[in-house]
Amino acid sequence: MSGIPYGRQSISEDDIAAVTAVLRSDWLTQGPMIERFEQAVAQRCEAAHGVAVCNATAALHIACLALDLGPGDLLWTSPNTFVASANCARYCGAEVDFIDIDPLTLNLSVTALAAKLERAERAGRLPKILVPVAFAGQSCDMAAIRALAGRYGFRVIEDASHAIGARYAGRPVGCGAQADITVFSFHPVKIVTTGEGGLLTTNDAELAERLRRLRSHGITRDPALLQAREQGGWYYEQLELGFNYRMTDIQAALGLSQLDRLEPFIARRRALVARYRDRLAALPVGLIADQALAESAWHLFPIRVDETQRDRVFAGMRAAGIGVNLHYIPVHLQPYYQALGFQQGDFPEAERYYAQAMSLPLYADLSEEQQDRVVKRLAGLLDSGVARCGW
Ligand SMILES: *Cc1c(COP(=O)(O)O)cnc(C)c1O
């Protein structure tokens, strides 16, 4: 029997045709597919602007730069995320701090956030940027975060790498109702893929312009922005230090084609989640709780297994060819962040979850037979008297 990964892409003949068409065209990069993809994502997200980049890590980096994050500034995020959500601040020379998670939704706790903001205000060390992460595809309590942002004056970059197609308060994630900038990832394990790729949405035209410039070396050809008079058709100016963070037309064409199936992808993930919930109900595992107002895109299906059994169960699943995974090692426990002064015990809920966490396979092409195999193996491994995992 072949192995089952925890996540993988779903590629159709249409996707292949879309990529092939670009390969036969004049433009492999900096061509027309980029804008078409940007507009298609922005439209789906009900956002005014979309800016495509080479990956979500680059997107987070230029989002921080566009919001003027720099040395002496602070960015806060969740410890239960991929390292990129925090590293973006370090690229800008800023400092990172974390807010512990809500043990039910596994997203950053707004109660902990509110308490930390009060202390930070007294200490004169408020964050400039908050990066809430829509863990597993489910938004944080964004209404509360928006209210706190208004009160304390920080900006919000939503890391929605897991959450294209998700909704919050009846609108698509990325619409900009609560976040200044939203970031999506199109890595193959995510919901929609471009191979590597990322995209930022915003409703702020100036921010969008700045993001486009930072994506391409800090260069502009816009006559309104040139310092000198245009000197000929070759002329451009570098106004600030930018990067080559561009997406290719090959990637954008794949993304555009994939986007056509966003709804079926999400519907399939939801159906598989309903089946998991049904079949896991009698097993001693903990499941992620629903966040009010949020409709998850279900990038991941994390479960909790009693910490005395988790390692054995995880190894048993892998030995059976079932690619369980773990999301996430708390970022503050990484050696790089430990060297910056973070310690074991700093964010106990994220650490407690880490000791119990396991992500089960979930992707659009996962068959019901494969899913049943996952559940059967899990049930077998849990047989030996595992206590129901508490929250
Ligand atoms: C995947 C991921 C990223 C990074 O995305 P890339 O496109 O691989 O750079 C950032 N944040 C989170 C939460 C992710 O899951």
What are the salient characteristics of this protein?
alpha/beta; 13 helices; Aspartate Aminotransferase, domain 1; 391 residues; Aspartate Aminotransferase, domain 2; 38% helix; binds pyridoxal-5'-phosphate; three-stranded antiparallel sheet
Would you kindly provide a brief summary of this structure?
This protein is of the alpha/beta class and 391 residues long. Helix content is 38%, strand content 13%. It has 2 domains: 247 residues, 3-Layer(aba) Sandwich (Aspartate Aminotransferase, domain 2), CATH 3.40.640; 120 residues, Aspartate Aminotransferase, domain 1 (Alpha-Beta Complex), CATH 3.90.1150.
CATH architecture of the largest domain: 3-Layer(aba) Sandwich
Largest sheet: 7 strands, mixed
Bound molecules: pyridoxal-5'-phosphate
Unreliable runs = none
- CATH fold title of the largest domain: Aspartate Aminotransferase, domain 2
H/E order of the elements? Answer: HHEHEHEHEHEEEEEHEEHHEEEHHHEH
Protein structure class: alpha/beta
Question: What's the helix count?
Answer: 13
Describe what this molecule looks like in 3D.
By secondary structure, the protein is of the alpha/beta class. It has two domains: 13-259, Type I PLP-dependent aspartate aminotransferase-like (Major domain) (Aspartate Aminotransferase, domain 2, 3-Layer(aba) Sandwich); 262-381, Aspartate Aminotransferase, domain 1, CATH 3.90.1150. The chain is 38% helix and 13% strand. The protein has helices at 13-23, 32-45, 56-66, 84-91, 110-123, 142-152, 205-215, 249-259, 262-280, 310-319, 335-338, 348-356, 368-382; strands spanning 49-53, 74-77, 95-98, 129-131, 155-159, 167-168, 171-172, 181-185, 198-202, 219-220, 237-238, 286-287, 294-295, 301-304, 357-360. Strands 1-9-8-5-4-2-3 form a seven-stranded mixed β-sheet, sandwiched between helices. A three-stranded antiparallel β-sheet has the order 7-6-13, with no helix packed on it. It has a three-stranded antiparallel β-sheet with strand order 12-14-15. Helix 6 (142-152) links the parallel strand 4 and strand 5. The longest helix has 19 residues, at 262-280. The radius of gyration is 22 Å and the shape is globular. The mean pLDDT is 97. Pyridoxal-5'-phosphate binds next to helix 3 and helix 4.
